[in-house]
Amino acid sequence: MSELVPPHGAHVVQPLLLADGDRDTEIQRAKSLKKVPLSSREVSDLFMLGMGAYTPLTGFMGRDDWRGSCADMQLASGVFWPIPITLSTTQELADSIGPDQDVALTDGDTGEILATMVVTEKYGIDKNLECSSVYGTADPKHPGVQKVLDQGPVNLGGPVRVVSEGHFPDTYDGLYLRPLETRALFEEKGWSTVAAFQTRNPMHCSHEFLAKTAVEVCDGLLIHQVLGTLKPGDIPADVRVKAIDALVQNYFAPETVVQAGYPIEMRYAGPREALLHAVVRQNFGCSHLVVGRDHAGVGDYYGPFDAHDIFDTLPEGSLVTKALKIDITFFCHQCGGMATGKVCYEREDGSIATDAERLKISADVATGKAPPRPCNHGPETKLQISGTRLREMFANHEKVPEEFSRPEVVAVLQSYYGSLKD
Q1: What is the spatial distance between Cα 24 and Cα 161, in angstroms, rounded to a whole number?
Q2: How confident is the model at residue 417 (pLDDT cuts 50, 70, 90)?
Q3: What is the pTM of this model?
Q4: Per-residue model confidence as pLDDT tens digits over 57-107
Q5: Peptide bond preceding 56 in cis form (omega within 30 of 0)
């Protein structure tokens, strides 16, 4: 019997992707069905349903599940779910679909048939309710809110049969791992506790410290890359993989890290999205999720620790996967190494904690075993470089301090930025 955390709300992972032998038949059938185009976010959600990352959902939500996830973070069945997973369309198309009619779901950009769906419900929604509940704001300048406001006026609910995962399996061969695959890999390694570290960026020294803190708590670490639609200026996934591989191979203990990617598209819903990330990681087999400062946030819509605090408000039994709550991390010259907003490594007698002691202290604070002891040294002692400034340094061939990023990582990124000029 597996010692990994169970899937969320189910005994087994429930992928909705049809077996290889059934897909061609379903695709041929779908060609004669009415077509419903999907937005990029809906495509992402469909792929997540297909791989089983959204277990126990069987398709796009009906009205009761939509309202429950918005208002109470709960499905009609009582299962915890923090963000609605819905499919919208135009009034005209919705009116042309009859009760329990089969339709084909297509990529709105390419027209590729991705799934079939039995439309069991058609319903209008209160977009203001969804925005205010999920995003904490109805401001159209918030990118997630804008996506909701841009949706069609009618939602379609019903079970889906997924026939394609798009380009992801081929584009990210070896990186694109489904929940059943990560679970098998963790069990093969003998891990029972696994921490997930989500990233859409290369990992520098601050990320390395967060990741090693997680390894201190768990048997292993899943570095989980966002492969869905990114923001302009983000580093391509293949470059991130090379940079992270360089870091792991040179600075982590052997056999403590698995690197993978998944097709989620960021909603930037802050605290609510942190909860969704925990639900998803539970399905991937992870017992813990690293939740950093302003996790999944954007702009100044959320407080720096809102994504930490929301886990403390959940009724018991909502989630099995736990949050590892870690503040912003930086190199502090006074502390003589990496420090965080919640942990100082200079003792009262002026001595400095060793590297091994730092990780143990950080892990105890992250898991609530020890109280925070913030680094109160002045800003002049702390090395912090913004993403914008780092890109400028690469563009201008400036030296990146080794306290900020490992030289092997810098070499990969410098090669990438240099190629942009060619």
Answers
A1: 12
A2: confident
A3: 0.95
A4: 999 999 999 999 999 999 999 999 999 999 999 999 999 999 999 999 999
A5: yes
The label of the residue with tokens 């205010």 reads 132
CA neighbours closer than 13 Å in the CB half-sphere of residue 41: 18
The pair of structure tokens assigned to 28 is 């041929």
Q: Which residues are catalytic?
A: 200-201
What's the sign of the alpha-carbon dihedral 85, 87, 91, 95? negative
Contact 117, 156 (CB under 8 A): yes
